[in-house]
Amino acid sequence: MEFEFISKSPQQTIEFGKKLGECLQGSEIIGLVGPLGSGKTHLIKGIAAGAGAEQAQRNVNSPTFVIVNEYQGRFSIYHIDAYRLNSTTEFEMLGFDDYCGPQTVVLIEWADKILPALAGVDLIRIELSHLAPGERAINISNAPQYLIKEL
Fold first, then answer.
1. Cβ atoms within 10 A of the Cβ of 119, count?
2. Is the separation of the CB atoms in 79 and 71 below 8 Å?
3. Coil vs helix vs strand at 75
4. Each residue of 38-88: pLDDT tens digit?
5. Whole-angstrom distance, CA of residue 17 vs CA of residue 126
6. What domain range includes position 61?
7. What is the pTM of this model?
8. Residue 151: inside a domain
9. Are 17 and 42 within 8 A, CB to CB?
10. pLDDT tens profile 115-129
11. What's the rounded Cα separation, in Å, for the pair 81 and 68?
């Protein structure tokens, strides 16, 4: 299924992410795509908060240099930033398969950089784009019914 949401502010992006996070059941792999400043990290802050991670707005940040951050909520949340990865091989060397499971959610920023490595994965794709200053389009594709029906 596909869904589009227009966010008018960073806080609205976080709130939308909270709704998404509340709907997650575990085992989801979500790839976030969009240019710098499009709201990927704000959306992830909300998703983590909605999934029960404590103090998500303060503790969630883009793991650009460490590549992977882990947050605890109703399940383990792995936040991967592929921005600095130079190849799908580097991504595979992270042990991606080890992060995937029924009690985990994997969130991948800059997923477009490593899409070949995700070819066999049931990836929920979230694309963010600039519409105007402070305004973002958030497009979700390949989402399961349970995720979309609550939005």
1. 8
2. yes
3. coil
4. 999 999 999 999 999 876 666 676 766 668 989 999 999 999 999 988 888
5. 11
6. 25-132
7. 0.92
8. no
9. yes
10. 999 998 999 999 999
11. 7
Report the C-alpha gap between 45 and 119 in whole angstroms: 26
Which stretches does DSSP call E strand in the chain? 3-7, 29-33, 68-72, 76-81, 104-109, 123-132, 135-141
pLDDT recorded at residue 17: 96
Q: Give the span between the Cα atoms of 84 and 147, in whole angstroms.
A: 30
Give strand pairing partners of 32: 109, 126
pLDDT for the residue 95: 87
Supply the pLDDT for residue 64: 62
60: burial class by Cβ within 10 Å (0-12, 13-18, 19+)?
buried
In a domain, 142, yes or no: no
Domain count, the chain: 1
Residues in a beta bridge with 108: 31, 80
Whether 16 and 7 have beta carbons less than 8 Å apart is answered as yes
